Amino acid sequence: MNKQRLKKQRWLLTFFTLLLLITALVAINAGTVNIPLNRVIQTFLNNGSFNDQFIIFELRLPRIFITMLAGMGLSLSGAILQSLTRNDLADPGLIGINAGAGVAISLLFLFIPLEPGLFSYVIPLVGMLGGISTAVLIYFFSYERHRPLKPLRLILTGVGVSTALSGLMVVIISSAEREKVDFIAKWLAGNIWGTDWPFVYALLPWLLIFVPLTFIKAQKLNILHLSEGVAVGLGVRIQQERLILLVSAVALAASSVAVTGGISFIGLMAPHIAKRLIGQRHQLFLPLAMLIGAWLLLVADTIGRSLIETIIPAGIIVSVIGAPYFIYLLMREVD
Amino acid sequence: MLATFKDLSKTQHLLIGTGLFIVMFVVALRFGAKDVDILDVFFALFTDQDSEAVLVLRDIRIPREVGAIFVGAGMSVAGAIMQGMTRNPLADPGLLGLSAGAYLTLSLSVIFLPSASMLLTLMICFVGAALGALLVFGLTMTKKQPSVFRMVLAGASISTLLYAVSDGLGIYFNRSKDIASWTAGGLIGTQWTQLWTIAPFIILGISVAMLFAKQLTVLSLNEDVAIGLGQHVTRTKISLFIIVIILSGAAVALVGNMTFLGLMVPHIVRGFIGRDYRYILPFSALYGAIFMLFADTLGRTLNAPFETPVAAIIAIIGLPFFLIIVRRGGQGL
User: Fold this and answer.
1) pLDDT tens, position by position, A158-191
2) What is the CATH number for A110?
3) Is it true that domain B2-332 has CATH number 3.30.70.330?
4) Nearest Cβ partner of B315 from A168, A174, A316?
5) Per-residue pLDDT tens over the stretch B254-289
6) Is B167 near chain A, with CB under 8 Å?
7) How far apart are CA B27 and CA B294, in angstroms?
8) Read out DSSP for B273-288?
9) How many domains would you assign to chain A?
10) A49: domain range?
């Protein structure tokens, strides 16, 4: 049984890796300037024109990397949150991490003048700080002394905090000039805006820390996902494990969102699809969820870039795909 | 002190509420970017004198505060009805997708019908509020008693979708700022003509809601009891639903999104008036109006002469309420 599952996992992983690679190829030649496949290959073989080289290596590749990394981070974050809350509807975007990062970034953007060079390094950091402080706030609000933390309450509190922060956003936007509002509006809508190599370097370390950490904790997630009683019975230190996993989820989501802008639903969809394909064991579905998340976000961004002349932010495409999926999940739960 | 406040009779509460309302109304008129004399407020309200201060009051401040009264009353009653109907203490037009729906259609009208009349804008907002409500309720009400949690989460995600689409449209058509400033503007520039269009709907909505107050009380306790007592539950629900859409759609048309207002006020009111919706509804209207006057005055004076958007003030004051309700309802979740 287990061996069969592992085999299935290997097949699925291979399949999605291939799918991801093919999509990445499409993403390289799609966009405002269409670069045919043979020229893409020529460029990779170092025979391309300067123009092609610039577009591929300086514009498209970093964007593709960021999109994939962020997709991975968001889907893993969603998977953790879903298991911790024992609820398939949890998603980092819905519980306020996006809103927190958004407020922090807008404040910085509007009120602190930055050197253009410094900009790309500071903004992701500030976005992350915003996301993490929001998470701390949510944790603090839903914390009760001498009582175990209730994951559902954590999510509800998150929804409330997120709503209040959106209100705050209104103040910020209303006090800004038009060009700045456009940037913020685009950020909120999840326009992959960090499209330069520094952003890849800003995002990668967080994934390198928290992805392995989450994988190490996969067995704990299995147990926590079952029930509190079982977890205690098996000697899991619930509070401590929960806290570590929460921190990972928040860090993964906040760092991803900081470079991509407000993207919801990836963290909801990807783990869910992965679970349906291979089952509830975290060791099996977590890697798959990451690949699916990367693929989904890449597809959304590619569609957004090439559908019409204006770039439609990936976050909007994801929402348009993700919300019906969410609706389907809600309906299915009823039966 | 609180206990004695609770023990007051309904008439006494009505007197206190009305007194508070009048005081708040006068305070709202008196203070602002330009403070006026209390006598001018009197002149503006009761005489046809026309000094400069009186004209300012009559053309700018009075319509604005009257707008605040209607929006506050409408949103609060809408919230009260939703809470009763769904037996969900966290129900609020802003949280459960109605505002987001109205915002989407409003964005569409800002983009495609920039010169739409107030009445048309209002209708457009009704359609949007209905869309948001149908999505959220249609999805969660299939179960007889959907959990608070599912509803709020469904509301949050449907809102995310609707906002995403509105933002996308705003970006695509380069109108983000115009759309955002609808909400950011709040009550700025409210005119009598707008009020003449919107107020009748809000008055009608609240009045019709009062006719259903008794059914709503039973419904808020237990749906089976309501059926057992021979209520046409579905008919009642649909009627209440339409009222909620009209009230919150009208509020969005005038001031944009306003979360937590409809959540907060009915909870405060229930605290001293009990669980009977024949009283909850009118008192929600009264205190909603008072609260909105207060919030708008705060918005005008906090950082004068600049305005702090009233939606933001309410979102920030409302958050603690939301958190307290989540805490109290913690067991049931």
Assistant:
1) 888 888 888 787 777 766 676 777 777 777 777 7
2) 1.10.3470.10
3) no
4) A168
5) 887 788 889 999 999 988 888 889 999 999 999 999
6) yes
7) 9
8) H-S-HHHHHHHHHHHH
9) 1
10) 2-334
